[in-house]
């Protein structure tokens, strides 16, 4: 007894020591960070400065990284993995009225994409900036399709003489696994309602179904039309110029001796060809300071810091329109920013219902859906806002389909962009068994249960008819619930919703014509409408984002993991031979994407409102 007592006391003391040690370590780290930050030279904006529009990583509406992560990345001159769309837009709008800003230089070398409607938001802000009369210039070594949409909005578009513009059109390809599963001895069991509900097709087919192909042709063609319109109007080209370019590229390249930049110039996609040195001289001649001959530029993130310090954002403490972001696959449970976790989103929505100063809610949806249960949790929380007498308006971003549409269906108004991917009203489920695989590798299974139900659903046993009938019965009810939910929210009959549902995907402009959305417009339009529904007049309210907090230690851990990965890369540790690198990385990317998708399928009942096909490349 005495030994146990002393061991217990020692365990407690040792645990307390570890906690104190951790707290002191964090304290020292924060002090060091503050000291390093205070030692940095404050950014100053002088007359004639060029604003560098250099978004990096993926365009998002909500950062998955925390403030600490971003600050550490900035201190180490590492580009952030994500860029907030609203930050780019705010910088452009502020710069248009700032006499110190002489021009904007668009640099999209670090941009990794992020969804068509997000590009549209930035492109609109770029056009607004040009109305100020200040020049906008774009220069890059290589323009991908997403980056070129932004670059095309500039007055002048330049490219490196060894680079070019890579426009391929819209497409969607998926890996299909039916043959692989058959060879391995894995049996996927598929349940779905909606012949267009194609997210489960890769598990039991080796190619696209006719229904999936028909639906994809429609919305991909419409999306490509939107892209062409944005580019050709900005570049003052014929409406079919990009189609013609794609069809004739091979012959044009052969005629130009393989010089892609020259082909781009002749096609009117760019205005001139440069290299880094000649472009620098060009900028110095146009915007160079008379004292030192250099031109002075500031990144948009640093510029925003100065702008917010000089003109703090207005906040109305009494009348607010709250904005909750639902971005990413909808999953069950809780999670930090960057994931549409049902419990976490519902908590933010209920906060909007309970806070007296929040008079209306805007749900900004950028999600292909996911867990049916988590979608129901979010939808239930949205209902509490309505019950509190506050209007709810949805703003659909690049994609708001399946579960992403479910959480929006009963809002007072739904706004979408013309290029939003939406609809996909349907339900699917997939279960795997592998008795053939287990037998092949020498595993056997034996046991007993107290009821027939205890024997069902094991990986080592074929799916029996009783369990199949159970799932069929439940999935039918889940689909009826989805259609009834939309029917009630949109004021349509069950038959009308079923006719445009069954998993079919629509683009925003088409969705408006079939009553899936009310209006075509931006997040700002949706917020203004929500304020109007709440009886608030312009200038009498502020828009406030209701955000989740990210654990400090999570960010700290991920930062050091990032630095370790960078160090290993520089030292060549774990790297593949160059000749295999591209193939290995591509295979790894495909495998990781599939594993990520499977990891997000965590619905407690196994039913999903998910649009796995709602992505274009």
Secondary-structure blueprint of this entry?
Layout: H1 2-38, E1 49-53, E2 57-60, H2 67-75, E3 82-84, H3 85-96, E4 101-106, E5 111-113, H4 116-130, E6 136-143, H5 145-151, E7 156-165, H6 178-184, E8 187-193, H7 210-235, H8 241-255, H9 260-266, E9 272-274, H10 276-287, E10 297-299, H11 300-310, E11 320-327, E12 330-331, E13 340-341, H12 342-354, E14 358-367, E15 369-371, H13 372-387, E16 392-401, H14 403-406, E17 413-416, E18 421-423, E19 427-433, H15 435-440, H16 465-490, H17 494-500, E20 505-507, H18 508-513, E21 519-520, H19 523-533, E22 542-545, H20 552-571, H21 578-599, E23 608-610
Helix pairs in contact: 2-20, 3-4, 3-11, 4-5, 12-13, 16-17
Task: Please give a structural write-up.
- The chain has 617 residues and is of the alpha/beta class.
- Helices cover 47% and strands 18% of the residues.
- The protein has 21 helices and 23 strands.
- The strands form 6 sheets. Strands 11, 14, 16, 17, 18, 20, 21 and 22 form an 8-stranded mixed beta sheet that branches.
- Strand 16 (392-401), helix 14 and strand 17 form a beta-alpha-beta unit.
- It is globular.
- The chain starts with a helix and ends in a 7-residue tail after the last strand.
- Mean pLDDT is 84; it is low at 35-41, 566-571 and 573-581.
